[in-house]
Amino acid sequence: MNADLELAAYAAVKNLAASGLTVATAESCTGGLIAAAITGVPGASAVFRYGWVTYCNEAKERELGVLPSLIAEHSVVSEPVVAAMAEGAMRKAGADLAVAVSGNAGPTAAEGEPPVGTVCIAITRRGAARPTHTETLFYPATPRNILRELVAAKALALIAGAAT
């Protein structure tokens, strides 16, 4: 794991602990990297509730409660789907916050899907005035492992910010 990712995880865990908050993760294209970064920080057991790697659509549906119709209407790499993933993870984990990511790391994109390098991310916080924030990121021509690390670092930065 690179130093930037480790620092981002440290900041997320520190801010969660200082605020007395817990977090859950729902990951697709990062394959568990966000959860691994969090749990690599001493003291993470006080703030990390659950992590799901929901790589296939069936897992998103069964484990997180994402509606198949939402995936069919918007694509699995979409803001509505990652919002549903984050909200489902927060609910099922009983966490205060949850982050979710879904993206196309390549090497090719299926017909009708967003291009390779497109990633959607969501963070939700229980009781917040605007509970779920989503955004779409684009990392064109980025090697798969680097894309995963960039997305994980972004997710950890969102957790750190939401925990303050």
Task: Please describe what this structure looks like.
The chain has 164 residues and is of the alpha/beta class. It has one domain (3-162): Alpha-Beta Complex (Maf protein), CATH 3.90.950.20. The protein is built from six helices and five strands; from the N terminus they run H-E-H-E-H-H-H-E-E-E-H. It has helices at residues 3-19, 33-39, 57-64, 68-74, 79-93, 144-162, and strands spanning 23-27, 48-53, 97-103, 118-125, 132-138. Strands 2-1-3-4-5 form a five-stranded mixed β-sheet, with helices on both faces. Helix 1 crosses helix 2 (33-39) and helix 1 packs parallel to helix 6. The two termini are 25 Å apart. The model has no long low-confidence stretch (mean pLDDT 95).
Write the layout of secondary structure elements.
Elements (H helix, E strand, L loop, with lengths): L2 H17 L3 E5 L5 H7 L8 E6 L3 H8 L3 H7 L4 H15 L3 E7 L14 E8 L6 E7 L5 H19 L2
Parallel strand pairs: 1-2, 1-3
Antiparallel strand pairs: 3-4, 4-5
Helix pairs in contact: 1-2, 1-6, 2-6
Number of helices: 6
Instruction: Please write the string of helix (H) and strand (E) elements.
Output: HEHEHHHEEEH
> Oligomeric form of this entry?
single chain
Instruction: Output the CATH homologous superfamily.
Output: CinA-like
The profile of the biggest β sheet is:
5 strands, mixed
* CATH class designation: Alpha Beta
Gyration radius from CA atoms, angstroms:
15 Å
Going across the biggest sheet, name each strand in turn. Answer: 2-1-3-4-5
Strand content: 15-25%
Q: What is the first-to-last residue Cα distance?
A: 25 Å
CATH-scheme architecture: Alpha-Beta Complex
Q: In percent, how helical is the residue content? A: 40-55%
Q: State mean pLDDT (0 to 100 scale).
A: 95
Q: List segments where confidence is low: pLDDT < 50 over at least 5 consecutive residues.
A: none
